[in-house]
Amino acid sequence: MKLFHLSDLHLGKRVNEFSMAEDQRYILGQILTLADRERPDGVLLAGDIYDKPVPPGGGFAVGLVFNRACERKYPVCIVSGNHDSAERLAFGARLMNARGIFLSQAYEGQVEKIGFEDAHGPVTIHLLPFIRPSAVRHALSEEAESITDYQTALEAVVRHMEIFREERNVLLAHQFVTGAMCCESEEVTVGGLDNVDASVFDAFDYVALGHIHSPQSVGRPQVRYCGTPLKYSFSEAAQEKSLTVVELEEKGNVQIRTLPLKPLRDMRRIKGTYMEVTDRSFYEGTNCEDYIQVTLTDEEDVPDGLQKLRTIYPNIMRLEYDNCRTRGNTGLEETGEIEKKSELELFSEFYEKQNNQPMSAIQEAFIRKMIEEMKE
Question: 227 by DSSP, 3-state: which?
Answer without folding.
Answer: coil
